[in-house]
Specification:
Blueprint lengths: L1 E2 L23 E8 L2 E2 L3 E4 L11 H4 L2 E3 L2 E5 L5 E4 L1 H14 L7 H14 L11 E10 L12 E10 L10 E6 L16 H16 L4 E5 L7 E4 L3 E6 L2 E5 L9 H12 L3 E5 L3 H9 L3 E8 L3 E10 L2 E4 L7 H14 L10 E3 L2
Parallel strand pairs: 1-4, 10-11, 10-17, 14-15
Antiparallel strand pairs: 2-3, 2-4, 2-9, 5-8, 6-7, 6-8, 7-19, 8-9, 11-12, 13-14, 13-16, 16-17, 17-18
Bound molecules: 2-OXO-4-methylpentanoic acid.
The site of 2-OXO-4-methylpentanoic acid has 7 residues, from loops.
Length: 351
Amino acid sequence: MKITKSKVLKQKPDFSKLGFGKYFTDHMLVMEYENGAWNEPEIVPYASFPMAPATNVLHYAQSIFEGAKAYKNDEGKITVFRIDDNFVRMNNSAKRMCMPQFDAAVVKSALFELLKLESEWIPTRPGTALYIRPFMFANEEVLGVHASKKYVFCIILSPVGSYYAHGLEPTKILVEDELVRAFIGGTGEAKCSGNYACSLLGGEKANALGYDQALWLDGKEHKYVEEVGSMNIFFVIGDEVVTPQLVGSILPGITRKSCLEVLKKYGYKASERRISIEEVVKAYEDGTLKECFGTGTAAVISPVGVIGYKGKDMIVNGGKMGEITAFLYDKITGIQQEKYADEFGWVTQIN
Ligand code: COI
């Protein structure tokens, strides 16, 4: 693989104050698609893309992305978490968006080279990681509405801390019952950029009212809970830990799936099923809504302390992180950061 090293290396940020997605490493991986095939991936200095005004991604949004994380221990051992699942999901997203499939094995080994090159950028404090952002966009210069014939696949890396500025403090989410993020038959389960653009107004409405993010309901009846702006959602109702079933309009989250696997292995009653917002309200009213939390690569396991709905706030678990949320946070970050053995086979060492 061709590697062109940057002549000037950037100054690294203070790893104790990273926030999310603000700093980018010195290099990136790029692979281009034209004439029906992908070229070899290359590692090049992190830089802007030259782009013609008629480049079709700017007009018709053929664009998908992923989020994964790499970790490093004190001996310099670098690991990634469930990266194969990211590439499978990305190829599924590509299919939905009429974009070409890529060879995950080729991209994975190129990513490992990039991670080794950028090893100094991997933060090691608890709660930090090197965020891996693969993305693919249409790159043909043409205005007709059809699938592009040219694409760019790229991976950039960003040292990150907590996704939310308030860290592990419980988030406040607002049920959005007018706007819609996704619907059956649409692109909701693909990780395409348009889904996130579509969610911004709901997020801004929530922010204006003092909440962190919107909780989306289904697009047909505005009745069933789907997901939050940047995470999947779980509720603990009585002795059941429940997350909305993947009906086609919900992102099949990798942290979501990991939580379900941990819960089942450790003897919790974990279900994937449709859950209406009225069921959540009823559980709150009768005292059986014990916990609520979001899951995502960026968000990790984020406790939800307040659910706003129809002008009222439901305060969950006294606004504090609950026991099952804390168990999952500890277990999943513990496996990622080697506090616990990798009992599920989720971690790959790359050096
Ligand atoms: C992730 O959790 O990695 C995501 O892609 C969510 C978000 C930051 C858009």
